[in-house]
C-alpha cells in the first residue's frame, strides 16, 4: 500500500513496521542480541549508522532502566508495555532470568493480531508463555497466558484500556512499570494526559518510562515533522515534546509524584557502559558525529514515579 494514501491511524500503526525493521537491522549487525526479533520481522534493507546507533541507545537505555526496576522490586512487580508493537522485551527478560508477576502488551488490534499470529506459530515464542502451566487463551487479536498478555485497545479510549487491564487481572497495589516507547507522541495531548492520569489514579505504586522526541521547536524538529506529515503521519502530541521540562511537567500535572527527563546524549554517556559503547562504535564507521548528536538532542527518556510505598523509586532515575 502506498504510505501517502494511508489514513492517520493506519500511518500510526505502520510506525511499528518502521521501528521493528530498524531494530531488526541493528540486531543483524550485532548492536545488541535479540534472538526473538527475527521470528517476528524479516531481514530488511540497510539503515544508516546514525539510525542504528540511535536505536542501540534507545533499546539499551530503556532495557537498563527496566532491569534496575525489576531487580529493585525483586520481581514482585508488573510491566505494561503500551503501544508495544513487535517488541520482544518479555522473552529477553525471561532469558535474563528477570521474570515478573505480569507482563501486558497493548496495541491496536491490527498490530496485535499480526503479533498473535506469529507467536502462535512459533515454538520458541510459545515456549516462553508456558512457564506457569496455565492454559493459553487465544482470539484473533489477543493472547492471554498466566503471566504474558497481548491485548487490543485504542489507548485514546480510556474505557477500553481500563477493561483490558482488568481482563489481564492486573493488581492495582503491586508496583507496576509502564513503558511508552515512541507512542504518546502519536496522540493529541488531551488523550495522553487522561491516560497518564488514569494510571496515577488506579495504581498506588508506579514507575513510567517514556521515550520520544524532545526539543522539537527548532529547525531540525520542523524538518522531522514535515517529513512525517508527507508520509501521512502527524505527531499529534508534539506539544509535549517542546523541552525536557514539558516532558516532565505532563506527569506532574497528571498526578505523578516526580519525573526526570534526559536527552539521549546524556543517556548514551551515563547509562550505557563504556565497554559496550567502545564495542558498538567499532561496528560501523561514522563520517561525522554531528548528525548523531543532533538526533540524540531530539530524543529523550523521561522516567516518572508515584511512590506510595516509599520504595525510593526516585533513585531509579537515570543519573
Ligand atoms: C513507533 S511504534 C513503536 C512500537 C514499539 N513501542 C517500539 O518502540 O518498538 C508506535 C506503536 O504505538 C502504537 N499506537 C500508537 N497510538 C496508539 C493508540 N492510540 N492505541 C494503541 N496503540 C497505539 C502503534 O500501533 C505502534 O505499534
Automatic annotation (TrEMBL):
- Gene Ontology molecular-function annotations: protein C-terminal leucine carboxyl O-methyltransferase activity
Q: Which family does it belong to?
A: Belongs to the methyltransferase superfamily. LCMT family.
Q: Where does S-adenosyl-L-methionine bind?
A: 58, 83, 154-155, 181
Tell me which EC number(s) this protein carries. Answer: 2.1.1.233
The name this protein goes by in its record: Leucine carboxyl methyltransferase 1
- State the InterPro entries in the record: LCMT1, Ppm1/Ppm2/Tcmp, SAM-dependent_MTases_sf
Enzyme category, top tier:
transferase
Provide this UniProt record's keywords sorted from A to Z.
Methyltransferase, S-adenosyl-L-methionine, Transferase
Amino acid at each position: 500500500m502506498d504510505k501517502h494514501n494511508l489514513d492517520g491511524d493506519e500511518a500510526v500503526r505502520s510506525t511499528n513496521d518502521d521501528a521493528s525493521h530498524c531494530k531488526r537491522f541493528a540486531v543483524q549487525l550485532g548492536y545488541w542480541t535479540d534472538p526473538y526479533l527475527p521470528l517476528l520481522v524479516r531481514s530488511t534493507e540497510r539503515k544508516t549508522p546514525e539510525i542504528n546507533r540511535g536505536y542501540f541507545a534507545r533499546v539499551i537505555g530503556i532495557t537498563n532502566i527496566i532491569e534496575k526496576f525489576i531487580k529493585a522490586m525483586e520481581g514482585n512487580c508488573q510491566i505494561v508495555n503500551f503501544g508495544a508493537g513487535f517488541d520482544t522485551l518479555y522473552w529477553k527478560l525471561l532469558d535474563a532470568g528477570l521474570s515478573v508477576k505480569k507482563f501486558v502488551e497493548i496495541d491496536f488490534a491490527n498490530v496485535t493480531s499480526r503479533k498473535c499470529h506469529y507467536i502462535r506459530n512459533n515454538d520458541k515464542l510459545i515456549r516462553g508463555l508456558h512457564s506457569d502451566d496455565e492454559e493459553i487463551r487465544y482470539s484473533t487479536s489477543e493472547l492471554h497466558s498466566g503471566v504474558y498478555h497481548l491485548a487490543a485497545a485504542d489507548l485514546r479510549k480510556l474505557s477500553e484500556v481500563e477493561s483490558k487491564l482488568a481482563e489481564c487481572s492486573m493488581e492495582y497495589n503491586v508496583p507496576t512499570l509502564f513503558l511508552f516507547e515512541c507512542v504518546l507522541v502519536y496522540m493529541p495531548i488531551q488523550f495522553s494526559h487522561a491516560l497518564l492520569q488514569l494510571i496515577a489514579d488506579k495504581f498506588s505504586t508506579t514507575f513510567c518510562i517514556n521515550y520520544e522526541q524532545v526539543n522539537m521547536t527548532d529547525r531540525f524538529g520542523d524538518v522531522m515533522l514535515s517529513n512525517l506529515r508527507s508520509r501521512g503521519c502527524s505527531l499529534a502530541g508534539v506539544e509535549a515534546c517542546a523541552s525536557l521540562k514539558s516532558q516532565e511537567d505532563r506527569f506532574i500535572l497528571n498526578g505523578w509524584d516526580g519525573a526526570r527527563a534526559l536527552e539521549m546524549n546524556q543517556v548514551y554517556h551515563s547509562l550505557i557502559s563504556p565497554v559496550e559503547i567502545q564495542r558498538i562504535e567499532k561496528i560501523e564507521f561514522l563520517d561525522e558525529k554531528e548528525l548523531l548528536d543532533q538526533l540524540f538532542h531530539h530524543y529523550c527518556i523521561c522516567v516518572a514515579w508515584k511512590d506510595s510505598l516509599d520504595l525510593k523509586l526516585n533513585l531509579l532515575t537515570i543519573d
